[in-house]
Amino acid sequence: MGNTTSQLTRIVGDKAADFTLPPDFFEGACYPQCSVQIIEISINSLPVEILLYIFSHFTVPEISRYILPVCTKWYNVGSDKSLWKSLKFGSGWAATKNFSASTIRRLIQQSPNLKTFEYHSNNYIARIIQTLAKHCPQLQTLEIQSKALTYRTVESLVINCPLITQLSLYRIEGNDYTKYMPLANLKNLRALEFSGCDWAVDELMLAMAKNCTKLQYLNLQSLSFLSDKSLSVLLSNSKGTLKTIMLCLWEITDKSFEQVAECTNLERLTIVPAVNISNSCFLKFQNLKRLETLTLSRLWSVSPSVCSAVFGHPNLKNLRDVDLVFADAVDNTVIKSLVQNALNLSVLSLERCTLITDDGMYSVVAWCKKLVYLNLEGMQGIHGTFLLGIDSTLPLLRVLRVDHCYMLEPAILKKILVRKKKSKLSVFTEVSHVYNEMESSLMRYPATHQARFQVNFGLLNVKNPGPFELSSYVFRKSIW
């Protein structure tokens, strides 16, 4: 084949060019002499259906800025109504600062089939909401973070967009709840999220509870003036449909928590903080048969025996993601009950659970074979012997957090960091010498000063229970 040549034809549009391959091109090949033909196809020759599929991966602002100006064909395809169903102006490239109010309003006007709208800005919010209400009657998902709205704006939105099923309002300024009373007429709501809104008071929530009887998602955070008076009614009216409940409220008590326990279809539950849950109420949580994700912070009022009985109940065997933060009720017995019951745990976070020791963690390593994420941040009762060979005992583990574990043996930590280079495990920790330097510097002060420094910096000494207990109290009051 030494003297053999082959013709390579390259077709570009309507033009063709011939190239002669070198004589030794096919030498050493195991296939017979052949001619190779490379064909380039212009993207404009693709069917409209394929172009629509490609353009569907772009956001509406991206379509408006980068696709429509290219050519006439792209303009026509990019203007298809099926692509203009979602407008999101949040963070990143699509932040509102990159678009003028007139541009945003024009995009809304060109999107009569708009289903989702997100807007995070104080600029021209009233005009934008009014434009949205006028041109987008099929709106279903609305997310807003802005300054205070007027009664007229809210009323116009509710009247013209009655199909809204998901409503998320973040840090909307003001404290006059009467401006937002029209929200009570959204009868199709399935997901409700209020965060940092001082106007979300009992009067408004009671009005919404009358019509919002099919909620599936409820997220209420940092609402200073919301109490059991309205929350218990809201939970009671939707207890048959609720699948996700996320509560970050200080004032609620067993009156609301008992309604949470009756939501038998619940799959995800977050209570931050859980300081007001009593033993009798927490026992009712064992009826949540479908619960898969559980987050509890500051579980202080529940005894370890009750906590162990709940986590060990067969109804909670479906738990896959458990996050317990500052949970004084969680000790070794509770952890053993949890891991022996919920064998499918993939995420476990025990941040600052100071009563758990290596004995309890050995049960985690022995039973949680499907664990992918393990967070031990701030646990002052562990020395780390259970971590030796953890990459082999927990083969699926990918993330291990041991930040601020000041009792962790440096030699054990060093072995873990060396072994992680040969495995897929990612270990997150702080530099241990910072703690050692601070600890050694304390020795120059009297015992009373040492205790004060231990409290301020979180340097705990299990041999001295006084500072240990005091430090735990300071952590609870300062971190969350």
UniProtKB/TrEMBL annotation:
The keyword Cell membrane does not apply. Keywords: Ubl conjugation pathway. It comes from Hirondellea gigas. InterPro entries: F-box-like_dom_sf, F-box_dom, Leu-rich_rpt_Cys-con_subtyp, LRR_dom_sf. One of its GO terms (biological process) is SCF-dependent proteasomal ubiquitin-dependent protein catabolic process. This is F-box/LRR-repeat protein 12-like. Gene3D superfamilies: 1.20.1280.50, Ribonuclease Inhibitor. GO terms for cellular component: SCF ubiquitin ligase complex. Residues 40-87 form the F-box domain. It holds the Pfam family F-box-like.
